[in-house]
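TASK: fixed-backbone design
INPUT:
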């Protein structure tokens, strides 16, 4: 089955497959994008284009005035998805109860883009089903939506995929508030299997001991050691003894700065290494 037609929308079939999300670079500037991990997506269907105003009006209510631009909030998004899920039985008995209609997760969106099932437009911002998070610790590895973990105002935001203004091959994870009207967001939908049973997630805890040992080693090698070696090699041995504190402090600072941009790559977490929630 290459496509589905439902509620006046055309959904393209995306074959099951695995992909990798996140970075394994060790620099601190990449901390919010770690760890790199495998995600396995099942077969699902996705709208090739985001919904337009006439499609949204048809789904919600023919008398609803949407204006001339996309305005989104939690209430409107929930209303559309609930209405579609109430009528999912129209697709056939094989879809009722085991499938759902919702926004795509980040993994589903990227998998669909990688397989050329969607072609996002430059300068746009699409709504995702995932909650906002600071990194990939605790992320779902089977493509299901990620719930918000914690407290604070970001619980009212949703993750979005933001496309580069001039190059649609470049995209970044972003966010948008849903507790108030948000302008300019686009909605793309998926028909996807409901993941049942315990979720497989990226381990929530890193190997802090190994990270500390690595940081001590590379701060010493790239900062402290050169700080003492350079004046010694330049014939300033007396200063090595008299100014050791300044050299140590300077070396620690230099090592600290190098850690922002470079450290050894971190391990990639495979699906089999995930935790069962």
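OUTPUT:
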């Amino acid at each position: 089955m290459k496509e589905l037609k439902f509620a006046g929308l055309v959904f393209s079939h995306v074959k099951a497959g695995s992909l990798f999300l996140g970075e394994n670079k060790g620099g601190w500037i990449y901390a919010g994008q770690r760890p790199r991990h495998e995600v396995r997506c099942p077969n699902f269907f996705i709208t090739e284009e985001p919904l337009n105003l006439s499609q949204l009006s048809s789904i919600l209510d023919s008398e609803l005035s949407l204006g001339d631009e996309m305005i989104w909030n939690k209430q409107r998004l929930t209303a559309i998805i609930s209405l579609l899920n109430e009528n999912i039985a129209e697709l056939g008995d094989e879809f009722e109860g085991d499938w759902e209609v919702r926004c795509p997760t980040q993994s589903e969106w990227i998998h669909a883009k990688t397989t050329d099932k969607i072609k996002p437009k430059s300068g746009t911002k699409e709504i995702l089903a995932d909650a906002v998070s600071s990194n990939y610790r605790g992320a779902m590895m089977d493509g299901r939506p990620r719930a918000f973990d914690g407290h604070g105002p970001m619980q009212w935001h949703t993750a979005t995929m933001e496309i580069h203004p001039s190059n649609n091959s470049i995209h970044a994870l972003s966010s948008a508030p849903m507790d108030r009207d948000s302008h300019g967001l686009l909605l793309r939908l998926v028909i996807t299997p409901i993941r049942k049973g315990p979720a497989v997630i990226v381990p929530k805890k890193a190997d802090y001991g190994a990270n500390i040992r690595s940081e001590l080693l590379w701060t010493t090698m790239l900062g402290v050691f050169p700080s003492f070696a350079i004046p010694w090699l330049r014939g300033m041995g007396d200063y090595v003894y008299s100014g050791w504190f300044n050299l140590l402090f300077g070396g620690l600072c230099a090592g600290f700065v190098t850690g922002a941009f470079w450290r050894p790559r971190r391990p990639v977490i495979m699906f089999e290494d995930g935790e069962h929630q």
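COMMENT: The mean pLDDT is 91.
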